[in-house]
Every structure is written in C-alpha cells, then in structure tokens.
Design goal:
single chain; about 325 residues; TIM Barrel; 13 helices; about 35% helix
C-alpha cells in the first residue's frame, strides 16, 4: 500500500508562518515555495458550503468585520455553521492570532490572489470556499499564474500537488460545529466535501483526513477514489496499523511528539506511509528525516524545502 514516490513537503494551512492561515495568499506563498501538498481545514456554512477555516467559531484574533459588513461582530464568536456563505463574506481573515509563534506572518497582498479575487469578486483575505481553492490552484497553473509572474516550474509543480482536507469534527461540541454524523453513514460535511472534489475533477489529487476516524471511513465508502488518512493527537496507539485499517484509511498522520522509530518501522512494514504534523523546528525535521518519515506538515515549507535540498531529497 505504501506508494509515495517522493517526500511529501506539506504546507500547513497554506504557509501559516508567512501569511494568515487558510487564505488565498497563504496558499499562493506555499505554491511559490514548491510544496508537494496543501493541508487545510473544512467546515460547513449554514447553507451547506464547505469553507476553509480552522476554528468552529469566528473570532477577533483571526477575523475582522469588513467595512459595511452586517454579520455578527467577531467578538461575539459566532459559529461558522450558524452563518450563511453570504454572511461569512463579511469577514476578513487577515489577522495573526499568535504573533509570538509567527513573528514573520504578514497580511500583505500577493499577486495572484489579487487577480483571482478581482475576477471572482471576493476578498483575497476572505474565508475561501473549497471550490475556490481548487479554482485558485487551476488559475495558478494556468495563464493567470503566468500573468502573476509565476515561473513555468512553479506552475507545473502546482498542477501536480495534492490537497489534504481536514474535515473538522468534534463530537462533544456538536452544537458548535453542526455535527450531524450518525454512525458510519456519510453525513452532510462528508457528502458536501466529496461533491465539491468531484465537481472540480480533483478526486485523484485530494486526500481527506480527520481526528474523527468514523468520518474518514465514511468518506472512503462514499468515494473510494479518495485517499484517506487518520489524524492522531497526543497519543501513541498500541497498534497504529490496525487503527489505520479500521478507518479504511491509507496514511497515518500523528502528532510528531508522540512518534518514534518503532512506530514508523511497524507502519512501514505494513505499507503505511507516515506524515507527522505540525513540525517547525529544524532539529525535529532532521530527526524525523533520519527515522524515514514519508512527509512532514509544517508552517514553514520554504525552510524545510532548503533542508530537503541539502539532503538531496526529492519533493
């Protein structure tokens, strides 16, 4: 089952260390840096549109109300699932909620995001839809990308990269997140995400992951052509390979702090790739590379790319 032919350089929420997370400029910077894949978070609006935002609630640390906007004040922390797409368009996600961790993050314009947003009549720092991410990637790889100054190499790489979608589920807080998941059956979040992927023609370039492994299995049953992955946080399972199998997944994505060489060898022995998250320190990158992981999710893909080049690792 392990069929990854090169190392996976995965930009976390685009390139969170350099631009506000899950925004078109963050994705553009990640594309510019030559990532192998983009990781992003998926919630649903009240009218069933998959949108790219990490938190279940709008908050003032990340978002501000656009001039003339009539949506609820971010200070009130409205749930994303309580808002229509039209209401969500009233927010700009251009703030840095953690400048201590991300001192180099800036919200300056990027050329393609500006061009694309003008044509789509959206805010380049608005909360994008999943469909807009796919359209943006196609624009980057096409003539609009050339117009925005992207090189042939950058555009070719963007035309091959993967999209890693984290479906956001938190069963205990169903009231906040709109958790309509029932057993193993695909629910609205899974069904709508799969529909958008199919409509965009990106089934063969998309993976779906979640901390709710029932969601992962439901997606696989709904669309077997999608590669799926299990997310693991703050734990080292007794049998990680069995956990992957039970979810009908193909990739293991652990919190790197709870990973060791023993687990990696066990997973690789059963043909399961390992892509830990979210790793931002060079010493940790080097340790994971020595252990033979198949990829790394990072907020600083440009710096990790330099390390991989030094080691002669293709990505």
């Amino acid at each position: 089952m392990k069929a990854m032919t090169s190392f996976e350089l995965q930009g976390h929420r685009g390139a969170r260390g350099l631009r506000p997370e899950n925004t078109l400029p963050a994705f553009e910077v990640a594309f510019d840096l030559g990532v192998s894949s983009i990781e992003t978070d998926v919630h649903l609006t009240n009218d069933g549109v998959p949108v790219l935002i990490h938190d279940a609630r709008i908050h003032s640390g990340l978002c501000r109300l656009r001039l003339g906007g009539t949506a609820p004040d971010p200070a009130h922390q409205p749930a994303v699932r309580s808002l229509s797409l039209a209401e969500l368009r009233d927010y700009r996600a251009d703030r840095n909620p953690d400048p201590g961790r991300f001192p180099r993050q800036v919200a300056t314009p990027t050329p393609l995001a500006q061009l694309f947003a003008e044509r789509a009549d959206i805010d380049p720092y608005g909360v994008p839809t999943l469909a807009e991410l796919f359209a943006f990637a196609q624009a980057y790889a096409g003539q609009l990308g050339a117009q925005a100054g992207k090189t042939d190499r950058q555009r070719q790489k963007a035309n091959r990269l993967w999209f890693d979608l984290e479906l956001k589920r938190m069963p205990f807080h169903a009231d906040r997140i709109g958790n309509d998941f029932q057993g193993d059956a695909p629910a609205l979040l899974e069904a709508q995400a799969v529909r958008v992927v199919r409509d965009a023609g990106f089934v063969r370039r998309t993976r779906v992951r979640s901390f709710d492994h029932r969601s992962v299995r439901a997606v696989h049953q709904l669309e077997p052509g999608l590669v799926t992955a299990v997310l693991i946080a703050e734990t080292a399972p007794v049998n990680p390979s069995e956990l992957v199998r039970q979810a009908e997944a193909r990739i293991y994505c652990p919190d790197y702090r709870f990973l060791d060489l023993i687990q990696i060898r066990q997973l690789h022995a059963e043909g399961i790739p390992v892509i830990p998250w979210t790793v931002n320190e060079s010493a940790d990158w080097l340790q994971l590379l020595d252990w033979g992981v198949d990829g790394i999710t990072t907020d600083y893909p440009g710096e990790l790319a330099a390390v991989l080049k030094e080691r002669g690792i293709d990505f």
